[in-house]
Specification:
Structural class: alpha+beta
Low-confidence stretches: none
Shape: flat
Distance between the termini: 92 Å
Helix content: 55-70%
Radius of gyration: 32 Å
Strand content: 5-15%
Number of strands: 10
Number of helices: 23
Largest sheet: 4 strands, antiparallel
Number of domains: 3
Strand order of the largest sheet: 4-3-5-6
Mean pLDDT: 83
Length: about 625
């Protein structure tokens, strides 16, 4: 009689359920607290302030229900529950006695594995179904759309669970320790960020002008962030001067979620292959699969060696590539040996391992040298003006980030001049110096960052700065940067001027009816060259000193059309915002603006324009 292959064992399945019911209960309670309990609290709370039979109450509850569902549609719980469930169901693989005992039962590995997998999937999905079943009767009385969103919530949570459970089981098959499973799970989730950060750090450390920018984490290899950003239910709010003007719900990334769920199932299949071939005597080992051990040794050696070399180089304030390569070579060997000790569970190092460690360090050192040489083009890359959507110039004491959209040539010329004077600027040292940062937003959505140090007293730096100053202070550029390209049609939402009050400076609001008069005066002063973006080099470096003026006119705009603003580009790479801000340092040359501020009663006379030396405490 031909034996049949079984993929499920009912006894083991129910034993798992009874053994880990506390995990199931905790997960269920947590979901209930985050969904139906929160919704019920909203219903009770708003019932105190609104007529429960009124339309305003119904609209408020409806919106809060949808917000609650949208807010709970994320993969954070799935990340934790995935590894928790995997470690619990396969805990016997991390204990020698349990492993020998359970594999001595008349149960095949195939039957044991798939029974555990089915148990895990059931225990991950069941709390989601229970939560939806309890929430649905509550939601249906207040929001029909909420039921549709609840169905999407169930779908997304199941997809998240399948992926992270699959990843956790896959990772767990490569180690014989519980701690190892947790560590490797974290490494697999954060590996892309770590590698990208190291690469960016090395580039910024040795590349002239290259900025230590954060890597783009919105990438599938960083699943936690990628799923949060690109899948789920989003609440979209739009506000105007009267408050909330529109509200909508958007379902995003269903296909992406399905793709990740499929990847999770594929990982479960691969994990099964590893499990079938896994040796029982590897319990307790950091790495249980022979072919994975070199990846572990080399990965630890290269990663640990690079990070340690960067730290040592930073501490000793040297930017020599040769010193870095030597440090990296030595540290890589050390970390390689430590990884090998973990694998062998012994402090003894064989000659063969030492040779392999040296080979690892040598190979990576060569790769670094080649990459550093090939990276020379990165230092000398200057974007083409036709490919630039906007460029931001920012310095240490600039009152406003300077944004150029229609006139990027000034920034490009500054960029080119810094590269030409690299030899004179890179080796110069000065107590008084500052960085000028360039942030290019390209039309294809990419962002290019550069940062150049300009030391005081350096002839090349002074010449470069003067050329930038002349180009940037052109009236059309000042208008565009301070007030955006829509400066003629912007709506001013607030305006204030800092004035002296005793020992300090305090903001004094301009009346709304006087916005236009003051704003027209500001534009006139800009057109006349009385308001500039960059002062002289010495004034710029010492801009926080006592000889600079303390009065600032602050203006908030609501833009005619969303655009790149002076803060949005530099800080978060946003393409478009609907609001902008300008801070204008006043001086006696701003005669039109000062006269307008006197006319509207904000300033008494011209003597109200004071220097910081006249103010004993900072505002």
């Amino acid at each position: 009689m031909q034996s049949k292959i079984s993929f499920f064992n009912k006894t083991i399945f129910f034993k798992n359920l009874t053994q880990y019911w506390l995990i199931e209960l905790g997960y269920t309670v947590l979901n209930l607290l985050m969904m139906p309990v929160v919704i019920l609290s909203y219903i009770s709370e708003y019932g105190r302030y609104y007529d429960v039979n009124g339309q305003e109450y119904a609209n408020t509850i409806n919106m809060n229900i949808k917000d609650t569902i949208a807010g709970n549609t994320n993969c954070l719980l799935a990340v934790v529950m995935g590894i928790l469930m995997a470690v619990a169901l396969f805990h016997y693989m991390y204990n020698n006695r349990s492993s020998n005992m359970i594999h001595a039962f008349p149960v095949t590995r195939c039957e044991l594995y798939f029974t555990n997998i089915i148990t895990g999937i059931v225990m991950l999905i069941l709390p989601i179904i229970i939560t939806a079943s309890i929430s649905a009767p509550i939601i249906v009385n207040y929001s029909t759309e909420g039921l549709r969103l609840l169905a999407y919530w169930v779908l997304f949570e199941i997809m998240y669970s399948l992926f992270f459970f699959g990843l956790a089981v896959f990772v767990g098959m490569f180690t014989g320790q519980t701690i190892g499973a947790l560590v490797f799970y974290g490494i697999f989730n954060l590996m892309y960020v770590g590698v990208a950060t190291i690469i960016k750090g090395i580039e910024a450390f040795f590349g002239y002008g290259l900025s230590a920018e954060s890597p783009d984490v919105n990438y599938p290899l960083f699943p936690l962030y990628y799923l949060i950003e690109n899948t789920g239910i989003n609440s979209n709010y739009t506000y105007d001067d009267t408050g909330l003007s529109s509200y909508s719900i958007e379902i995003v990334g269903v296909k992406t979620g399905i793709a990740f769920a499929v990847v999770g199932l594929i990982l479960l299949i691969v994990a099964y292959v590893v499990y079938i071939k896994r040796q029982l005597e590897t319990v307790g080992d950091w790495i249980t699969v022979s072919w994975a051990k070199p990846f572990f040794r080399w990965g630890i050696g290269i990663g640990g060696g690079t990070i340690s070399a960067l730290i040592i180089t930073s501490l000793f304030a040297t930017d020599s590539e040769i010193v870095f390569v030597i440090e990296m070579f030595i540290c890589s060997i050390i970390y390689f040996m430590l990884a090998q000790m973990l694998i062998l569970k012994s402090f003894k190092i064989k000659k063969q391992s030492l040779i392999e460690g040296c080979a690892c360090a040598l190979v990576f050192s060569i790769i670094f040298i080649v990459a550093d040489s090939c990276g020379y083009w990165r230092e000398n890359y200057i974007p083409d003006s036709s490919e630039i959507e906007a460029v931001c110039i920012r310095g240490g004491y600039l009152d406003n980030n300077i944004v150029l959209k229609n006139n990027p040539e000034a920034a490009l010329e500054f960029h080119e001049n810094c590269l030409v004077a690299k030899g004179e600027l890179e080796g110069a040292s000065s107590e008084n110096s500052f960085n000028m940062d360039l942030v290019y937003l390209m039309k294809d959505g990419k962002v290019v960052r550069r940062s150049y140090l300009l030391p005081e007293g350096n002839e090349a730096a002074e010449n470069i700065f003067k050329e930038l100053q002349t180009a940037i202070n052109e009236p059309e550029i000042v208008l565009e940067s301070l007030c955006t390209e829509y400066y003629k049609d912007n709506t001013i939402t607030s305006m204030s001027c800092s004035v002296r009050d005793g020992d300090g400076m305090v903001p004094k609001d301009v009346s709304e009816k006087n916005y236009k008069e003051v704003y027209d005066a500001v534009i006139k002063d800009i057109e006349d060259g009385n308001i500039v973006l960059i002062n002289d080099l010495e004034d710029y470096i010492n801009n926080s000193g006592d000889d600079t003026y303390a009065n600032y006119l602050s203006i908030n705009f609501h833009l005619t059309k969303p655009t790149v603003t002076n803060d949005s580009l530099y800080y978060d790479n946003s393409r478009y915002l609907s609001d902008a801000y300008a801070s204008i340092q006043l001086n006696p040359d701003c005669k039109n603006t000062i006269e307008a501020l006197i006319d509207v009663g904000v300033l008494a006379d011209e003597s109200d324009i004071v220097k910081w030396s006249d103010v004993t405490s900072e505002y």
